[in-house]
Amino acid sequence: MLAGDPALDFANTLHWRGGNEVDFLPDYQSLIDWAVPAGLLSDGERKALVAHARICRDAATETHSAAIALRTAWRERLDRRTSARKAPLQQGVSEGPLGQMLAAALAEPRLLLPGDALAMEPASRVLALPVARIALAIAGLELIPGERKLGRCEGDPCGGFFLNTSRSKPRRWCSMDSCGNRAKVRGFRGRFIAEEVKEPNA
To answer: Can you give the residue range of the structural domain that contains 34?
Structure first.
């Protein structure tokens, strides 16, 4: 949870570690486990969803698939917003595939009520709660006016998204302890090797 916003943390659940792409949301259980520290579900809601998922496994699988499709569309939009090499966005967030997914996820207003208000709702419907909360976070980040400058980690091949809230020096890394530190080590090694190469010719 390094991005500074749950919508961006959601995009970063597909990430790079040790040179390999890792999906931190391989199933429904991992989706709701992630949503608690992301601030999108309470622990009580998570426990209720675990119980519902045991009963309605097909609905849980469908919800997970919807979450992954939403993440793909969201990452594509973020990629265009943070890449100078790509053409500027021609559509607002309410248009195109991402807008359709957000509209579908937010189509049931009851899913945005506190978890205890959903006790009488069908289990298969309640399972969509994490996707509705994610969609609300994305809509909030995209549509509410404010100074929200998005950044992307320069670590290769990390590319994690984050809110750049730094006023003095632009943030370059998702985390100074990981990608930033590795970049510094690579830079030091590169300078050391360059000096070694120059030595014989001195």
So the answer is: 6-147
Please tell me the least confidently modeled range out of 27-31, 78-82, 142-146.
142-146
More confident residue, 184 or 80: 80
Max Cα-Cα span within the chain = 80
- Higher pLDDT pick, 72 / 185: 72
* Helix axis angle, 57-82 to 96-105, nearest 10°: 140
Kindly state whether residue 120 falls inside one of the protein's structural domains. yes
Q: Residue 12: CB partners within 8 Å, gap ≥ 6?
A: 2, 3, 160, 161, 174
Q: What percentage of the chain has pLDDT greater than the value 90?
A: 43
Under 8 Å between Cβ of 75 and 11: yes
Total of domains in the chain: 1
